[in-house]
Every structure is written in structure tokens, then in C-alpha cells.
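Sample pair:
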Amino acid sequence: MFSIPSRRRFIGISAAAAGLSLLPLGKRAKAGGELVIWQGQAMGAVATLQIHHHDRAAAQRLIARALSEVRRLERVFSLYRDDSALSVLNREGFLLAPPPELVTVLNDCRRYFELTRGRFDPSVQALWTLYRDHFSRTDADPQGPPAQALSAALARVGFDGVAFNKDRIALLRSGMALTLNGIAQGFATDRIVNLLRSEGIASSLVDMGESRALGKRPDGSAWQFGIADPDRPERIGATLEAIDQAVATSGAYGFRFDSPGRFNHLFDPRTGECAHLHRSVTVVMPTATAADALSTAFSLMAPEDIALALGQLGEGEVRSITASGEHLALRA
């Protein structure tokens, strides 16, 4: 959503007012209901929004509101836009009168930074830049960046070097930069779900890089979520069922800097190394914000540490495929 690595290139929002069913794209709405479909680009991805509602004008207004919210959040979190709040913060090292959504997300970051003992850390942007620059060279050492360069990048990493409140955000270390890719997609998903709920939508599936279901399916059954096969990410390797929950999956297959796949986009902020404990980690949580952040952090954590974090949260489920191919299921 907000920078180059992306697990998906499709955004989908399907919603139905009470008493109506979600319909496959291209199907006509039943009598008594109107199906309004919008297709285009949003957050740099192909997007489809479909709203099934008793009032066609209300459905059109809801789609317009959803698109407006998505584009507003892009102006806060995008690393593509030079004028976004996040880009200005990274460029200047401070931001006065920050958007409240940015402060909210940074508070969430602090929570998950503490819960995961530093594995979730949005200041790893310095590591992303290091690995990107290294592997973009034609003569790049396949063993990765030199130790001295890695140490220099790590000196700019650490969420304890970010000071913020509602009035000001400051990056306290020279050269620091933040990426919110590991949480902002989930936050945007939650905002859209809340918008739909406030407008009387009873059943919805929102996929904006992370997926969240609102309520049950219109027929009363649970939603089914597909989990990518880490060996062939274009295929579904497993499915799980959830009601009124969010699901997020992280894996090294999402973006690799080198052909053998030794170096990927999941950085350990303590060492600068890339994640290799799991081939895939899927997290089920009440919010997409939590699922997004924790799927990233849990990719860097051993199963016993994941279980400890779930116990502290008192909620959630994790399914992982370890590096050795073992399938694990952990619950709070």
C-alpha cells in the first residue's frame, strides 16, 4: 500500500445492507436491493468496491466516502508521495501539528514494539534503504551489505528514538526514517470497516492489503480466508474461517532482494538480519491493525515467544509454517 514491497496488488470492498446478500461481481442485485460497483485505482492498486443496498444513491455515497477516506489516508502514510505527512517527517526529522491518524498509529506501534520486545519497529526503513541500495548494484556482493554498512544502518534504528505527542513528532537520531507498511494497511482497513458499520452495513469483507470481515456472511456462515502457499504464493495453500475478525499473513516470499531468497523485507531491528524462522505467519485478531503489525513481528519470533505474546494479549490466533515445514496453530 505505502511502499514498494506489497503482498497484494488488489483492493476489494464488498458490503451489504441488512437483509441483502453480497453478490459476485457481474451479478444483478435481487429485487429490493441495488448493487453499485466501482472499479479503478486506489493506493497504487487495482480496486473494486461493491455495495449492495436498498437505496442506490446511498450506496453511491458510501463508495464515494470510502474512496475519499482511502485517499485521505494516503496523504498521511504514503512513502510514494513527497507531500505525505510521513514523507515530510522522514525528510525533515520532525513534524509539527501531525495528523491525528499518524499519532494514533505511532501509539499502536509503541504498544506492539513493547509487546514483541522490539521486534515490531517501524524505524527499520534504514535497513530497507541499505538492502535496496546494495542489491540494486550490478556488482552486489551476494553475501549482503558489508558489516560496517549494516552497523551504520542499525545505528539509525530503534523506536525508542521516536518522540511524539499530538503536537509534534521528532526523530531523535540522525538519518532515522519510518515505514508504516507493517501496520498502516491494517489501520486503513479498520477505518473503512468502521465507516461501513456507521452507515448501517451489516455484512462486509474489506481487503486493503489486509483483510477484515464485518459480522458474518449474509447467510449466517463464517467468512473463509485463503492463506497463500509460501512456495507458490499465487496459490491458496490453506483456508481458515472467521467471523468479525481480521486476518493478515506475512512471509519472506512477499519481497526478496536476491534470487536465492536469503534477503527479504522482514528485518530484525535488533540485528539487521532478515526473517527465516518461518515460511509463513498468519494472524487472526479483532482488528486489522493488530493482525497486520503482529504478522510482521511474529515472523521474527520463535513459537514460544509468540505464545507468550498471545497470552499477554488474551486474544488472537496464529498459524505458522516454520522453516522446517512444521505447521503450528497457537491460540491465546
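The first strand starts at residue 10 and ends at 17.
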